[in-house]
Amino acid sequence: MDFEQTILIVDDEKIGRKVLNDLLKGEAKIVLAKNGEQCLEKARDCQPDLILLDIILPDIDGFQVLERLKQSPATQHIPVIFITALNNYADECKGFSLGARDYIQKPFHPDIVNARVLTHLRLKEHVEKNQRQEKALQASELANELKDQCLSIISHELRTPMNGVFGALHLLDDEVTTEDAKKYLASAHCSAQDMMNLVDSMLYFFELQSDKLVLDKRPFRLQQLLTDVESRLMQCAAHKQLSASVTSNLPVNRVYRADSQRISVILHNLLDNAVKFTQTGTVKLLVDEQTTTGSDPDVVLEFKITDSGIGISAEQFPKIFEAFTQTDAFFSRRFEGMGIGLAVCKRLVDLMNGKISVDSTPDQGSCFTVSIPMSRVSVSDFNDSPSSEVTPDLARVLTKDSRVLIVEDNPVNLMMLQGMVKRLGVSVETVQDGAAAVEFFQNNPVDLILMDCQMPVMSGFEATRHIRACSAKGENVPIIAVTANAMSGDRERCFASGMNDYLKKPVRKEDIAQCIRHWLPLPERKTSN
Taking the CB of the first residue and of the last residue of the chain, which one, N or C, has fewer CB atoms within 10 A? Predict the structure, then answer.
């Protein structure tokens, strides 16, 4: 019979070994030793689950054996039960003080020995099981931590070069004049956006899979969100010569509290799919509001995305929100994409306690409906909020009297940011690490800082803390994070370090302009330098 557990019996008397062997051979594999040295050797070699140890032995006594067992890393974990004719109270106390788990006096009752041995075997099995589970949990936590670090690195390393691509394309928008060149530039914009959509979808998917994504519910202006969505939709639809529209039945100044960034991700994914799977015809987004009574949140915002594309059969409905799925193998070959966009949409909508549904007819088109509960915010409260989402004074004229410091270690991104900011008419200074930023700020007038976060010598976080410590001058200067750190919690980390606002790479020239116009102090309110 094969046993999972082993008992080492140590007794110098043959009859003693036989009695215990006969009693326990049906419970575990039995190994015998007749003296202390044999016990130590066999304990090292066979690693028993339990040792039954006599105290009176011919070479070294059981107390010495136990001491040596506990001194060795290879055997110190093995539980030991003394079985001895010694019935002295002091001997029993000595045994327990040395690390014995139990103490059984001879003559013993077989049932007592059997019960105690089984109890200690089960206890050891339970302890080892808990240790295995704890190790597995630690390994899982380490794996998750490494995965999070890996995702953060991937996000940073992909967004950094993409920021250079987008920056160059945005700056070329103002330089290109011929129609052919404009078409080439529009194609480049769409291709770069497709690449960025793929990166975002992949990172969101894995972040959602690890349950690390945290919603960031803040006030946002619906019109601003729809303007951004419409701009991207029109550009990609025009590239395929499709008709496109974004329509809202709501007042233009309506403000809500929700995670507008993730809502934007949902809408971009659904609209990108609509454009991708539509060869001719239209793509439309319709936005409306449903009021709920006696509940919080108090409204449900409804987004309907309709297209005149290839459509989806009813049989495919249950599968379309699964990851790495498109409608069939034919479409997988015909249409590009990883097949995770709808899975990301579904997980984000679920996270927001919303609903997403589809109605479609093959060869006629599809309609995706997204309903997300949220709270309405009064416009006056929103305008008082120190957030870059407050509509800035877009007509405000900026002059060279205003000095903006750009802190960026990547030469391409530095060049792109410098080009965008210079076109606003302000003076621009640049440094390439946090320590240089602190030194420049201490010795020169600066009205606003655009701060990268991940840099050599000194990070943007540490630089911000040093600048904030520079008396009133450092306390008041607006510091804007312009960073490729775009995972959950990165925005909050920027604010926690003392930054005023957060722009995620790749940034658009419109984002830079809006942010600078909002945060740059007016001439009469500038801090004295």
Answer: N
